[in-house]
C-alpha cells in the first residue's frame, strides 16, 4: 500500500443563528438577500465568491461594499464541513473522511480516469434501507446531511487541490450520488445540492454528468422528475422480485415493475430525448451472478432505455458474501452484450485506501432506529422522502 494520509481541518464550528450560505441555491440566496433588504443580484456575486473562488470570508468579497460585508458577518457564514482525514491512493484516487455537525462521519471519494474525475458524494450519515450487501446499510441511519454538507463535499474536493481560480482545469468533472445514504430519502437537500452542482454560477457541471443513484424510492423518484434534470442510476441487483426482495428490502414495497416504470417516466420528462438510465448490478458470487440470471435480466430490461453497470461485490467484514471470479463476471457480461446491451464493469479503484464507491465506511450509530422502522413498516414508510 502506497497511500499517504494527511490530516486537515478547514472548518470552524457552527455559529448559532447564522445562515450557512454554502448550501443555498441561487433562488434561495436571492430570497435571503431580499429578506434582508438587499438587492437580488447580490446572490450572483456571492455564489461566484463561494463556488468559483472558494472564498469563505466575507471580508474578501471585495465587490460587496463594506457595510454589506459587515452585515453578512453578523447574519451569515460560509461553513464547509470539517475534513478529518485525507487519503491518497497510488492510482490517484483521493478519499476524505468528513465530520458533520453532531459528530457523524461521512466519506467522499474522487476517482480520476483519463480526462475526467468523478466525485462520489454522500447524502446521509448511514442509511436506513439495509440492503444485504451494503456496509453503509449495516451501520444503520443517523441523519440526513444538509445541502451545505452535500455541496460542501464538492467544495472541499476542489479546495484540497487548491484549484479554485488556479487555472488547473476542472478537478471535478462528474458527480455521482453514490456515497453513503439513499439520496431520495433526503430529497430537498439533495435536489438543492445537485442544483448547485449544475448551476453555472456555482460548479456548472452538465446535467449528464451529475447522477443520482437510488435503490428505488418510487414516490420520490416520481417527484424528482418535476424538479431535477440530473441523470439517473437505479440499483437493481436482481432480475426478479423474489431475489430483489432479499437483497434490496425496499423492493417489497416498490417492486421492480414500478421502479422501471417510474425510471422510464423520469427520463421521458427530460427535455433531451437521448437519455438512458444506468442500471447498477452488484455481482455477488453464487447469489445473482449466474448466466441464467443474466438471461433473465436481459429479458427484463428488453425495451427499457438503459446501459448496465456491473459492480463486482466489495467484501467487508460484517458480510459473508463473496466477490465473483473474473470468469463469472465475464460470462455475465457476455450474455448481456450478446443480447445487445451496453455494459460496463466497474473496476475497483483506490483499493489500498478502501475507497470503493458505495462501500464507504464510517462510524455510525443508529440513534433513530429508523432502519428498524423501515424493516417493519407498512404503507407509510417512505413519507419522509418529502
Ligand atoms: N443508496 C443509493 C446510493 C448509494 S450506494 C443506492 O443504493 O443506489 C451506491 C451503489 O453502490 C449502489 O448501486 C449500491 O448497490 C452499490 N454497493 C453498495 N455496497 C456495495 C458493495 N459492498 N459492493 C459493491 N457495490 C455496492
Ligand atoms: Fe442504502 Fe444504497 Fe446501501 Fe441500500 S445500497 S443500504 S440504499 S446506501
Automatic annotation (TrEMBL):
Binds 1 [4Fe-4S] cluster. The cluster is coordinated with 3 cysteines and an exchangeable S-adenosyl-L-methionine. [4Fe-4S] cluster binds at residues 127, 131, 134. GO terms for molecular function: 4 iron, 4 sulfur cluster binding; metal ion binding; rRNA (adenine(2503)-C2-)-methyltransferase activity; rRNA binding; tRNA (adenine(37)-C2)-methyltransferase activity; tRNA binding. It catalyses: adenosine(37) in tRNA + 2 reduced [2Fe-2S]-[ferredoxin] + 2 S-adenosyl-L-methionine = 2-methyladenosine(37) in tRNA + 5'-deoxyadenosine + L-methionine + 2 oxidized [2Fe-2S]-[ferredoxin] + S-adenosyl-L-homocysteine; adenosine(2503) in 23S rRNA + 2 reduced [2Fe-2S]-[ferredoxin] + 2 S-adenosyl-L-methionine = 2-methyladenosine(2503) in 23S rRNA + 5'-deoxyadenosine + L-methionine + 2 oxidized [2Fe-2S]-[ferredoxin] + S-adenosyl-L-homocysteine. One of its GO terms (cellular component) is cytoplasm. Its EC number is 2.1.1.192. InterPro entries: Aldolase_TIM (IPR013785), Methyltransferase_A (IPR040072), RlmN_N (IPR048641), RNA_MTrfase_RlmN (IPR027492), rRNA_lsu_MTrfase_RlmN/Cfr (IPR004383), rSAM (IPR007197), rSAM_sf (IPR058240). Its cofactor is [4Fe-4S] cluster. NCBIfam families: rRNA_mod_RlmN. PANTHER family: 23S RRNA METHYLTRANSFERASE, RADICAL SAM CORE DOMAIN-CONTAINING PROTEIN. This is Dual-specificity RNA methyltransferase RlmN. It comes from Parahaliea maris. The gene is rlmN.
Amino acid at each position: 500500500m502506497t497511500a499517504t494520509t494527511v490530516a486537515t481541518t478547514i472548518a470552524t464550528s457552527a455559529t448559532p443563528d447564522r445562515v450557512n450560505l454554502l448550501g443555498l441555491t441561487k433562488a434561495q440566496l436571492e430570497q435571503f438577500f431580499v429578506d434582508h433588504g438587499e438587492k437580488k443580484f447580490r446572490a450572483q456575486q456571492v455564489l461566484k465568491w463561494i463556488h468559483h473562488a472558494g472564498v469563505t470570508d466575507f471580508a474578501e468579497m471585495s465587490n460587496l461594499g463594506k457595510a454589506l460585508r459587515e452585515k453578512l458577518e453578523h447574519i451569515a457564514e460560509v461553513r464547509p464541513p470539517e475534513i478529518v482525514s485525507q487519503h491518497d491512493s497510488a492510482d490517484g484516487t483521493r478519499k476524505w473522511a468528513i465530520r458533520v455537525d453532531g459528530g457523524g462521519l461521512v466519506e467522499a471519494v474522487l476517482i480520476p480516469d483519463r480526462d475526467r474525475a468523478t466525485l462520489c458524494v454522500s447524502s446521509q450519515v448511514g442509511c436506513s434501507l439495509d440492503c444485504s450487501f451494503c456496509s453503509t446499510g449495516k451501520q444503520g441511519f443517523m441523519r440526513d446531511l444538509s445541502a451545505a454538507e452535500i455541496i460542501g463535499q464538492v467544495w472541499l474536493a476542489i479546495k484540497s487541490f487548491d484549484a479554485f481560480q488556479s487555472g488547473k482545469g476542472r478537478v471535478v468533472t462528474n458527480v455521482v450520488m453514490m456515497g453513503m445514504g439513499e439520496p431520495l430519502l433526503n430529497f430537498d437537500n439533495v435536489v438543492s445540492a445537485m442544483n448547485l452542482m449544475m448551476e453555472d454560477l456555482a460548479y456548472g457541471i452538465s446535467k449528464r454528468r451529475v447522477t443520482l443513484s437510488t435503490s428505488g424510492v418510487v414516490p420520490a423518484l416520481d417527484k424528482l422528475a418535476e424538479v431535477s434534470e440530473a441523470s439517473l442510476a437505479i440499483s437493481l441487483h436482481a432480475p426478479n422480485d423474489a431475489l430483489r426482495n432479499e437483497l434490496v428490502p425496499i423492493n417489497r414495497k416498490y417492486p421492480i415493475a414500478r421502479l422501471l416504470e417510474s425510471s422510464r417516466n423520469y427520463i421521458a420528462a427530460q427535455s433531451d430525448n437521448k437519455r438512458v438510465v444506468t442500471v447498477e448490478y452488484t455481482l455477488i458470487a453464487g447469489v445473482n451472478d449466474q448466466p441464467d440470471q443474466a438471461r433473465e435480466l436481459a429479458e427484463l430490461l428488453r425495451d427499457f432505455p438503459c446501459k448496465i453497470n456491473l459492480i463486482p461485490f466489495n467484501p467487508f467484514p460484517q458480510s459473508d458474501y463473496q466477490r465473483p471470479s473474473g470468469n463469472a463476471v465475464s460470462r455475465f457480461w457476455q450474455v448481456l452484450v450478446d443480447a445487445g446491451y451496453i455494459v460496463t464493469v466497474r473496476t475497483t479503484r483506490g483499493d489500498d485506501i478502501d475507497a470503493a464507491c458505495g462501500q464507504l465506511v464510517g462510524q455510525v450509530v443508529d440513534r433513530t432506529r429508523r432502519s428498524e422502522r423501515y424493516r417493519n413498516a407498512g404503507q407509510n414508510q417512505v413519507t419522509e422522502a418529502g
